[in-house]
Amino acid sequence: MVGRSPKPKTDGTSLSRSEFLLHTSIVFAASVVLVNTFHGDGEPLAANVALALIGFSLCHSMVRWLGPTFIKAGFKGCDLSKPHRPEIPECMGAVCAAVYLLVLIVFIPFPFYKDIVAATSGGGNRDVVYQVEHVQQGRLLHRFPHSKLASYLSAIISLQTTALLGIGDDLFDIRWRHKWWIPGLAAIPILVVYFVDFGVTSVVLPIPLQPYLGELLDLGPLYYVYMACVAMFCPQSINMLAGINGIEVAQSLVISFLLVLNDALYLLTPYPHPATDSHLFSLYLLLPWIGVSVALLLHNRYPARVFVGDTYCYFSGMVFATVGILGHFSKTLGLLLVPQLANAAYSAPQLFGLVPCPRHRLPRFNPRTGLMEPSVTTWPPGRQPRPLVAVALRLLARLHLLRISEDEDGNITEASNMTLLNLWLVWRGPLREDRLALEVTILQLVVGLFGLFARHCLALLIFKEDNWALASATEVSS
Ligand code: UD1
Ligand code: MG
Asked: Which ligand approaches the C-alpha of residue 343 most closely?
């Protein structure tokens, strides 16, 4: 990000010559791969990568072309961290989501190619003579893995509903108390599939608790409440760690890469693993998401030429919730969302109204230095934080977890807004916007890598055996 070479010269809405050549070659090469996969047995992973590349090119080109159209339609926002606050297109996550959903839909025949051939007796050949019992069984369709198709379709339904919520929020600025529970309802299709297809509601208990509560604790219906909460938390958590160029997409990309790494750990085991199918499913959803997100990041990185909007944040969170729930690793997902969890917990006093919460809490741009500083919240004249809140704020300030200002009488007059981005600036001092985004993205990566290490190595210290082994024996989710 720092010291980046100048952007290619275009009129702002058309592709440069080199971009045009790049995208044409990508689409051509990917199309060749797609056509060839049908000569083998479908080769779904190769087809998925090819479609992810096409998604990248399509998304990159469409975001560039559609900028003025979005502005004309009223989808625009001021970049608050630039000297002249330029107005740029907003809600470009909608383009990303649309391209991604199209890619997922086009991909449907590939993972089921072998099953379609088996179920229709040779690629749908109608001239085959059927035995009477085959006719009664309906073209062998009972052999088709309907449950896997149901998983895939339920993911698409939940994601589409979330895209609608995001676009609605970008259009109408829906209130928090109205919008936070909508992803929970959008998750119903995936929860139903989880119930029918997997249905595991037990969690493995750590060794010290096992003498009292046993090895497994069955949470029953509470497990579904927990998964609905995951679906509600993920979209909002990405949207709350936002407000500087590139950060929404960069954090999503880091989480996606770490999830892909986690999937690869299962898929690269030399022996067949019971969780292989779930992790393949996760890859099928994540690789195209990485493709379209990289394309969006190229436009949204500092200095941003488009904003991603709430649509991107919600949609991205829902992609993670969907793969976590249907891939049966929602707790592992939690380890990759530690910065988002910390940001939400730190924000709680402002979200619950204990501390004033302005409309925007993104860091403040200082036009004199060109650097970002912690933004502040102030108390209206004559008003003070409640005594207990004041004690807590002073304690946080002493621990260097907050910056406060006091008047001569010792009353708190302002406090830095309680977000991870502002806290990082309290610790690191004023930073340029791209530097701040880079450092927080690296933090996300380091914490996530440690989370995966803890999941696969340290977990053995408090759990009897790793889920790799447990999954085959007891089928618990990780
Ligand atoms: C959430 C945060 C809010 C933060 C905002 C920034 C909570 C409860 N809400 O609100 O504090 O200020 O995200 O996205 O945590 N913008 C920039 N530069 C960027 C990205 C956004 O200036 O790189 C500004 C633009 O004016 C843009 C606006 O933020 O139009 C988008 O804000 P919006 O997504 O509507 O805010 P919320 O999601 O409601
Ligand atoms: Mg937002």
From this structure: 1
**Which single residue is written with the structure tokens 């949609």?**
315
* Residue/partner pairs of 173-178 with CB below 8 Å, 24 or more apart: 176/351
Residue 291: exposure state from Cβ atoms within 10 A (0-12, 13-18, ≥19): buried
221 SS3 class: helix
Residue 93 CA to ligand 2 centre (angstroms): 11
The 10s digit of each residue's pLDDT in 93-126 is 999 999 999 999 999 999 887 777 766 655 555 5
Pocket mutation for ligand 1, best pick of 81, 239, 300, 343 (most atoms within 8 Å of C-beta): 239
Question: How do residues 406-435 score in pLDDT, each as one tens digit?
Answer: 988 889 999 999 999 999 999 999 999 999
CB 360 less than 6 A from any atom of ligand 1: yes
- In our burial notation (b when 16+ CB lie closer than 10 A, e otherwise), range 92-118 reads bbbbbbbbbbbbbeebeebbbbebeeb
| Residue spans of the chain under pLDDT 50 | 1-3, 5-6, 8-9, 468-475
Mutate to test the pocket of ligand 1, among 1, 362, 436, 440 (most ligand atoms within 8 A of CB): 362
